[in-house]
């Protein structure tokens, strides 16, 4: 039995876009007989808000999302990431990077560098140059890639192809980076189904590449992705807290019960209203809407 997961960052309350993605992750997992895991991604302490984790779990439960397993928080698993980083470092696959954001923007780019990718400035520093730079700035660690082209299979998008880049795997404050932590956690918890919003689709080729390096090509190939459409506001922008009554607690304030919100989300997915279990049997990814869902918060917010 494989597993699916929902992996929120505890930066605040979930809004209906997040709840809809979580509902889809649950439906994909349950309808394919997978275990469903909750993982709190709290490595980015600057984005972690007090009480957010509890509020997120409460709201997920209120719309009927149950989890078989709650993984330890990422902040509790630092030794596991350190081990993965050491294994990559020992194999000569990582290098230290001293660049600031500005350095990266200003650097000349080789013509083959994928857009937005790190231009490779620190890749070939001598030991003496690295020693000198360490005096001024702690190093982040990047994965040395050959800009390989990697394709993953996505149930909704079809094949997603991307060129991998020298992604940061350890930030310069020592924290494991998002891509590293996701890959380690997904693999070690048996996740073989990744459902998340489609603004993260571009991360999948690089995460598959990293998973292959750490755990072998079969481990990378076994993951089935489904990147689901975003929820947008009336101005076609990605839904955000400032849009008004978009969290469950604000929707309660304007008179919508949790069950009503659940039913609105199900309706937006062309699924029958009622307890979520009722949507599992007939769940067919091919019948899901492919365009973003426009959510207009009810008046009175
Ligand atoms: N923690 C990420 C977020 O909330 C999601 C990561 C993932 O699903 O891979 O955006």
From TrEMBL:
Q: Which UniProt keywords are given for this protein, alphabetically ordered? A: Aminoacyl-tRNA synthetase, ATP-binding, Ligase, Metal-binding, Nucleotide-binding, Protein biosynthesis, Zinc
Q: Which InterPro entries would you find in this protein's record? A: aa-tRNA-synth_I_CS, Glu/Gln-tRNA-synth, Glu/Gln-tRNA-synth_Ib_cat-dom, GluQ/Sye, Rossmann-like_a/b/a_fold
Its transmembrane ranges are none
Q: Which GO terms describe its molecular function?
A: ATP binding; glutamate-tRNA ligase activity
> What is one GO biological process annotated to this record?
glutamyl-tRNA aminoacylation
Say yes or no: keyword Nucleotide-binding present: yes
Which residue range or ranges hold the Glutamyl/glutaminyl-tRNA synthetase class Ib catalytic domain?
Answer: 5-250
A Pfam family of this chain: tRNA-synt_1c
> Could you tell me the superkingdom of the organism this chain comes from?
Bacteria
- Give the CC-aspect GO terms: cytosol
Classification via NCBIfam families: PRK05710.1-4
* Alphabetical list of PANTHER family matching this protein: GLUTAMATE--TRNA LIGASE, GLUTAMYL-Q TRNA(ASP) SYNTHETASE
Q: Which family does it belong to?
A: Belongs to the class-I aminoacyl-tRNA synthetase family.
Protein known as: tRNA glutamyl-Q(34) synthetase GluQRS
Q: What is the native source organism of this protein? A: Galactobacter valiniphilus
């Amino acid at each position: 039995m494989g597993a699916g997961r929902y992996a929120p960052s505890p930066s605040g309350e979930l809004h209906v876009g997040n709840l809809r993605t979580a509902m889809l992750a649950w439906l994909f997992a349950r309808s394919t007989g997978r275990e469903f895991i909750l993982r709190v991604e709290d490595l980015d302490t600057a984005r972690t808000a007090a009480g957010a984790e509890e509020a997120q779990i409460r709201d997920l439960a209120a719309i009927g999302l149950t989890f078989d397993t709650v993984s330890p928080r990422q902040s509790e698993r630092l030794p596991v990431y350190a081990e993965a980083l050491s294994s990559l470092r020992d194999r000569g696959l990582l290098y230290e990077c001293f660049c600031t954001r500005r350095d990266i923007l200003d650097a000349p780019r080789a013509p083959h560098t994928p857009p937005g990718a790190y231009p490779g400035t620190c890749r070939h520093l001598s030991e003496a140059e690295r020693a000198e730079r360490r005096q001024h700035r702690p190093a982040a660690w990047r994965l040395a890639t050959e800009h390989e082209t990697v394709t993953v299979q996505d149930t909704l998008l079809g094949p997603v192809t991307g060129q991998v880049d020298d992604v940061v795997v350890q930030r310069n404050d020592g924290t494991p980076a998002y891509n590293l932590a996701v890959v380690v956690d997904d693999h070690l918890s048996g996740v073989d189904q990744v459902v998340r919003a489609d603004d993260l689709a571009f991360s999948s080729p690089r995460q598959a590449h990293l998973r292959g390096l750490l755990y072998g090509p079969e481990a990378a190939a076994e993951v089935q992705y489904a990147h689901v459409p975003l929820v947008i506001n009336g101005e076609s922008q990605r839904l955000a807290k400032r849009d008004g009554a978009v969290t469950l607690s604000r929707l309660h304030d304007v008179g919508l019960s949790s069950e009503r919100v659940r039913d609105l989300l199900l309706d937006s997915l062309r699924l029958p209203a009622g307890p979520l279990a009722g949507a599992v049997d007939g769940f067919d990814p091919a019948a899901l809407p492919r365009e973003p869902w426009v959510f207009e918060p009810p008046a009175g917010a």
